[in-house]
Write a structure and sequence with these properties.
alpha+beta; Rossmann fold; D-amino Acid Aminotransferase, Chain A, domain 1; Dna Ligase, domain 1; 3 domains; six-stranded antiparallel sheet; four-stranded parallel sheet; 11 helices; 14 strands
Length: 306
């Protein structure tokens, strides 16, 4: 006898052609395993090779995608034309959060705190006042810390590597570096989860390599952040989630400076779902294991009008 879940056909979409393909494949495999364990009829498809018709031939699409083509609203807009339900934020919210410059303008216009920032070119960044103090230079439409430069000493700027990055991006986002504690806060539905404190290896950064090699310590709940500040961080993440019209799940990165002030960094509309990823870790701290987490997300999508 079939249960309702046995009759629910879910397509997990992962892979694609972005620089984050490998992480996406791992996220997709973890999501698919969880949903199969929950009893759904699950198929994994690769965004790089599956047609829109194949992807849309289901009850729910679960995008386990990162980077251009999947996290930027492109896939979501295509699925909307096929009237298929999918997990996660809609096309407009996805595009907004993926574009870190538009995101910055949106949240700061509504009074949410971010460090000073500017869009710069290969020429203009060198003369910009923000480079006189510790700064961050990164793509405004990418993820997983790829091509991100954290410069703590303005006398030691990796100019050759930055010049190389500018061959791939006409503009990069320059921001004042916030010195302090990095937090990330997941939101599930309309519920902010316990913050995670991120502690990179000593004398290293929370970069692409250290995100996935197990060298970074991730504390949930945080050990060096007061309960009051944790609640403030949760409220800030929820505001960012709601202000950008996100839904189902997001993960917002926040810096806590040495004076106790919080600053938004960005909101991720499709956070990683691998066994090392931060969003599932925060859900586990709330008593929600991976099988239940993925099931909840599919059920949220099923309740929406296709």
């Amino acid at each position: 006898m079939y249960t309702l879940k046995n009759m629910t056909k879910v397509h997990v979409i992962s892979g694609g052609t972005s620089s984050e393909r490998e992480v996406s494949l791992r996220s997709g495999a973890a999501v698919a395993a969880a949903l199969q364990s929950a009893g759904y009829d699950v198929t994994i498809l690769d965004l790089a090779s599956a047609s829109l018709e194949e992807m849309a031939d289901c009850d729910v699409v679960f995008p386990a995608l990162h980077g251009i083509g999947g996290e930027d609203g492109t896939l979501q807009a295509k699925l909307d034309t096929k009237h298929v339900r999918y997990v996660g934020s809609g096309a407009a919210a996805s595009a907004l959060c993926f574009d870190k410059w538009r995101y910055r303008q949106t949240v700061t216009d509504h009074g949410l705190p971010m460090a000073e920032g500017a869009l710069v070119t290969a020429d203009s960044y060198q003369e910009h006042p923000l480079t006189a103090a510790p700064f961050v230079l990164k793509p405004f439409n990418g993820g997983s810390s790829i091509d991100t430069f954290i410069v703590r000493d303005p006398k030691d700027i990796p100019r050759d590597k930055i010049a190389d990055a500018f061959t791939r991006y006409p503009e990069l986002l320059l921001e004042r570096l916030i010195i302090g504690t990095e937090l990330t806060v997941g939101v599930l539905g309309d519920m902010p989860l316990t913050p995670i404190e991120i502690i990179p290896p000593e004398h290293a950064e929370f970069d692409y390599e250290n995100k996935y090699n197990g060298a970074t310590r991730e504390l949930c709940p945080p050990e060096h952040v007061s309960q009051e500040l944790q609640e403030e961080a949760k409220a800030l993440a929820l505001k960012a989630h709601q202000l950008t019209d996100c839904r189902d799940l997001t993960r917002t990165d926040i810096m806590l400076d040495q004076t106790g002030q919080l600053f938004l960094l960005e909101t991720n509309t499709l956070p990683g779902m691998t066994d090392q990823s931060l969003f599932p870790k925060a859900a586990r701290a709330a008593g929600i294991e991976m099988t239940s987490l993925c099931s909840q997300l599919v059920e949220m999508a099923l309740k929406r009008q296709a």
